[in-house]
Structure prediction request, 86 residues.
Amino acid sequence: MVQRVAYQIRVAANLIDPWIQWFDDLKITSLPGGESVLTTLPIDQGTLHGILAAIRDYNVRLIAVTQIDVVSSQGEEEWSAEPYNG
Prediction:
């Protein structure tokens, strides 16, 4: 059984153009104080590490990574991204 997990990744940067193009598959929510939250679709660990590596490579400070949903390959859960609630 393969598990895919959705995440919210909080960073210390306002991710606007041209960031949005790189993080095209992520929902980006800008927060007051110069922070952003990136919300993923359900992804595997390799994809998560790729996103985190890109954040590191662009020299963006990572604040938190939070698991928000788990979907298994045999499950019938439907995923929807909830807005970030702080």
Summary: The beta strands are 3-11, 27-31, 35-39, 62-72. Residues 75-79 have pLDDT under 50 and may be disordered.
